[in-house]
Amino acid sequence: MVKEFVEIKALGGEIKEMKHEISSKANSDDMEAALALKGDLALVNTKVGILEFETAIEELGEAIGLLGIKFQRKNDEWEERAAELWRGVDSKMSRDVLTSRG
After folding, report:
1. Is the dihedral of CA 31, 34, 38, 40 positive or negative?
2. Total-model pTM
3. pLDDT in tens, 56-72
4. Chain segment 18-31, per-residue pLDDT in tens
């Protein structure tokens, strides 16, 4: 009976050790899975970040293009207005010169 008790006690120690090893292995597997998931998430976030950045750059390019078109139209309007003003001034100066000679 004592011999059986010693064997059972030894088996209990082995079982504790096996539980510890299994727990460590399970924790290790969980940790590896968590790290792999974290790596996947980082990769997805990087890809999303790159995509968002590329989209933002494209939108910025479009906005700059539209702004350039708007400024070109304004510039054309200003050139037309300046030409009209110049024609008015030139016409007035010509009349003044002709009336002062006459």
Report:
1. positive
2. 0.40
3. 888 888 888 888 888 88
4. 777 777 777 777 78
Residue listed under structure tokens 């009209």 = 84
Q: Which of 38, 6, 42, 100 is nearest to 14 (CA)?
A: 6
* Structure token digits, residue 46: 């990087």
Q: State the virtual CA torsion across 87, 90, 92, 98 in degrees, nearest 10.
A: -140
CA distance 4 to 11: 10
What gap in Å lies between CA 23 and CA 49, rounded to an integer? 38
pLDDT on residue 34? 78
| Cα–Cα nearest to 78, from 88, 86, 66 | 86
* 3-state SS string for 24-59: HHHHHHHHHHHHHHHHHHHHHHHHHHHHHHHHHHHH
Location of structure tokens 């000679």: 101
